[in-house]
Amino acid sequence: MKKLLLLSTSIIIMITACQNPNTENEMSDNPFFSEWTTPYGVPPFDIIKDEHFIPAFEKGIENQNKEIEAIVTNPEPPTFLNTIVALDKSGSDLAKVSGVFFNLTEANTNNEITKITGEIAPKLANHNDNIMLNAELFKRVKTVNDAQKDLNKEVEIGNAAALNQEQKALLDEIYQGFVRGGSELKDEDQAKLRVINEKLASLYPEFGNILLKESNNYYMLIEDESELAGLPASVKEGASEVATAKGHEGAWAFTLDKPSWIPFLQYADNRDRREELYTAWMNRGKTPEYNTTPIINEILVLREQKARLLGYNNFAEYAVSKNMAKTPDRVYELLLGLWEPSLEKAKEEASELQDLMNKEGVNGELKSWDWWYYTEKLRKEKYDLDENELRPYFSLEQVKKGAFELSERLYGIKFKRRTDIPVYHEDVETYEITEADGTHIGIFYVDYFPRSSKRGGAWMEAYRKQSGSGKDKVTPVIVNVGNFTKPTAEAPSLLSIDEVQTLFHELGHGLHGFLSNVEYKTISGTSVKRDFVELPSQIMENWALEPELLKLYAYHYKTGELIPKELVEKIQKSGQFNQGFVTTEYLAASLLDMDYHTTENASDIDIEVFENESMNKLGLIDAIIPRYRSNYFAHAFSGEGYAAGYYVYIWAAVLDSDAYEAFAEDGIFNRDLGQSFRDNIISRGGSDDPMTLFVNFRGAEPSLQPLLKKRGLVKSSS
User: Fold this and answer.
1) What residue segments make up the domains of the chain, in order of their start?
2) Half-sphere exposure at residue 483, Cβ-oriented, CA atoms within 13 angstroms
């Protein structure tokens, strides 16, 4: 999941008011300047145009500036209500344009949006600093925070003025946001921080834009059909359509989109062509025309400077201090604790793949571009399972049905298809989510197919977050975006196992936003500690291939036949297959991320040398590379959300593996357990300490053992 560009206090970032001299007519034509009369106030995508964004940002900024000024100049003493709640409620006009714009930058961009991003990003960062470094505003926030500390001392003798837990969480989030934003720095250091933040805000989208341009411009063209040997007909058909669209009718083209390059690596017999496509993938951001190295170097230096200005030894300390892990040492402890058993299993897997190569008379050692191909052969040999046998049972429509059915059974909600909701692209579908009794919960957009205007990967965004209660309740508007296998002229979208799990994962993020039930938007939905946010999403993956759930959705797209029991058993038996590779490549990227952000001299880093030394130090085998190499490591370098934070997926995996054991023991559709998970975790947002929320659900802190057993990294005690 990737979040919008937000303040650390979750107040929407804004730019300094510099109102354009728009005419009355121009103002009235801009949909952001009027109340949205669409169903449930969703964005009117059918009338929003690129030229509306800058004026809308400026108007929203002007309005929020007035709100901030009103807080600062309030003659009344600072209180939780007139300062903290007022900050939480500020910026609603700006939130409208930000919610629309920042998802379009990733899901449906164009040259004009890219241009606007380059113009707006540093100004947004500048205004973020204007809020965070507003001395009078911070003085009021600190006054409320200090007063609450005093009340906390008196609460033991019954002082009723103390805040409740959710209010305390909001106050702490906002107060810590100001501290982490530099409010306690000296004037000269604040000035330095402003320069750093403004520059970083420009570098992050620049990094992403380079990768998007390279992905859009690269394709491997094949004109000799013999070079397609081994590929399934559906993969060839999709590649033919891509080639025709690029002006090469009668040929086949493979791109850097996962639904294109992964099947090629899995099934293409031509080893040279596999190497060609894989090399293009792993060298993204390293070519002369598309080179992210200078950007990475500058980002690392600026982050190091920022961290030290704020009193931390390195950026990892700064980033991790706000998470459950608290310190880089605890992150390393987890990652390195998993590294040895994962690498040992990966080496065993590599040995099996090498043996298979040798049997086939292939000269040389196993390479990274061989891994996917021989893994599929070994899967077939060991489990008589070919993923192409499974795809016909996993049409996108059926997988959606399964994910929705699971959500309904666990949480008592309903999904209703809507065709009256404006969308930003023809691929987008919309649904209304309600309680079982029909009470409206929110509006859900799904956007699942790759295109040149969309970055790679999958994510969830909120156009509008849940907040309030009763007549003042604001209902959420959320989107799931993916890059799944596209339908062809002959077949609907047929998903791989990985794509199935990704759909369930992102729906989990969506449910975290939809089922939020807190008063304040700053701590609503997915606004939780970064190494906790993946729990509601990753736990959904556990259900995706459960036999009981497969019976509800895994039907052949042509015949309507339920997936055979024999195939289901093969899926279950192969559940731990290739987990050494999967875990090792992930851990390698996580450790690389941490190594970059714990270094003491970022200015001395040679990116390629540093990456090689980091991996050599771990003993990573040559046949495996980090899941993300430095030059295309978007989690680390396209923003700060996951910087020194790619580890969060495995941290959350410990939580989700332990939590899912409750369902495995008491019934995977256990409605009471589902309601408990909803009440204690999903609905609570950031209103309490994550470990407290987990213990409230599970009854104890999580154990590492369920994760190790799940991935086959230790022998089960049974």
Assistant:
1) 24-132+134-180, 219-265, 293-385+579-646, 392-573+649-710
2) 21
